[in-house]
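Incident log, entry 3
Record: Sugar ABC transporter permease (342 residues)
Problem: checksum mismatch between cached and fresh output.
Input:
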Amino acid sequence: MTTTTASAQPGERTVGKSSPGTARGPRRRPGRIRRIGLPYLLLLPALLLELLVHLVPMVIGIVMSFKELTQFYIRDWTTAPWTGLDNFTMSVDFDAPVGEALLRSFLVTCAFTVLSVGLCWLIGTAAAICMQDAFRGRGLLRAIFLVPYALPVYAAVITWAFMFQHDNGLVNHVLHDQLGLTDKPSFWLIGDNSFVALLVVSVWKGWPFAFLIVMAGLQNIPKELYEAAALDGAGVRQQIRRITLPSLRPVNQVLVLVLFLWTFNDFNTPFVLFGKAAPEAADLISIHIYQSSFVTWNFGTGSAMSVLLLLFLLLVTGVYLFLTSRTARAPRNHQERKTADV
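Fresh output:
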């Protein structure tokens, strides 16, 4: 018996069952899905805590800023009358007592922040540069420099509060009794000297953080650059100006921003040092908002001041990041144009 086999025509394709060894398309495996979802699962507790600790209170504070929330509505703050933008208008009315006090507190905070951040950065950078070269006892000095940063804030500030006492404080004992720099013992926790006392405490506990960050940034600068500069006749000042500071620019950008936010929002230092009623010369905006909210029981106005402070910090942070990123891109673009010309 003869069998005929049908041959495929020139324009036709034969379709058959694939053999067991034929390769198939990529298929998403359950293990890959689990690997992708694992990071999100690990971040879930942190996201929930961030939501409960920061985002929810912030939203509630924004809602409270639009209400006439006083001590008469504390038991049920949701029943407080809706005032719209009245709290914000009162806070920025600088001719009225509330707005004038807020403006004075804001200016004091700006001056305190600029001086504290500048001194912290200057002392921390100088100490980190001095500790860069190896010498006997360097490790011990580094550990001693970090003691103010390692101490709890309350313990450190309470210690300084005792040292600033008028009658039996160590500061007056050294300045007046031992060195004779003052005619009589000074009042450091009241009056105009309170600003100096607050600044000293803030710098004392803040500069070790700058020292730690700058010291870590110095480790990434190759020593060959300093050796080559020394062979070319560059002195220590020229090396710091031409090598150290430009190399530390990315580190300093982050460091200054963090110090600014921490210092401008600092509440623990003035509260522990002066108590609920800070002197007018050291009335930081954080203490001022606390007094407006928890001393006078006007939570609506205090919440409006907090929202204004948040908007100001967001604006300053955004402008700072824009300017620093623009400054960082300028040398890179100049180098690219120079390379293209070559």
